[in-house]
Amino acid sequence: MFIEKIHPHTKVIFTMAMIFLSVLNDYTFSFYIIIPIMFVLHLINRSIQTFITSLIIVIPYLFMLMLIYGLLGELTDSNWIVIFNFKLNETVLIDILNRSKSVVVMIFMLSTLFKHTSSDSMLLAFSKHTSIKAISFIFMNVKNSLSHLRLRANNILIAQQTRGINTQGFIITRLRALWPMIMPLTMSAMLDSQERQLTLYVRGFDIESQRDNIETLKKHKLEVLFELLIVGLVIFSILSEVTIWLN
Amino acid sequence: MAQLELSNFSFRYQGSQDYVLKDINLTLKSGQFTLINGLDGAGKTTLGYALKGIIPHVFEGTLLGEQRLNHKVFQEYTHQELTKIIGYCFQNPWTQLSMIKSTLEEELSFSCENVGYALEETRFRVKAIVRLLDLSHLIHKNPIHLSLGQLQTIALGTILVLDPDVLILDEPTSQLDPLTRRRLFNHLSDLKKQGKTIILIEHNIDDFLELVDHLVLLEKGSILDQGSVIDVYTRSLSIGRDIQYPSLTALLSTITSLDKPILNDNDALTILKGVKSHD
Question: Is the ipTM of this complex over 0.90?
Answer without folding.
Answer: no
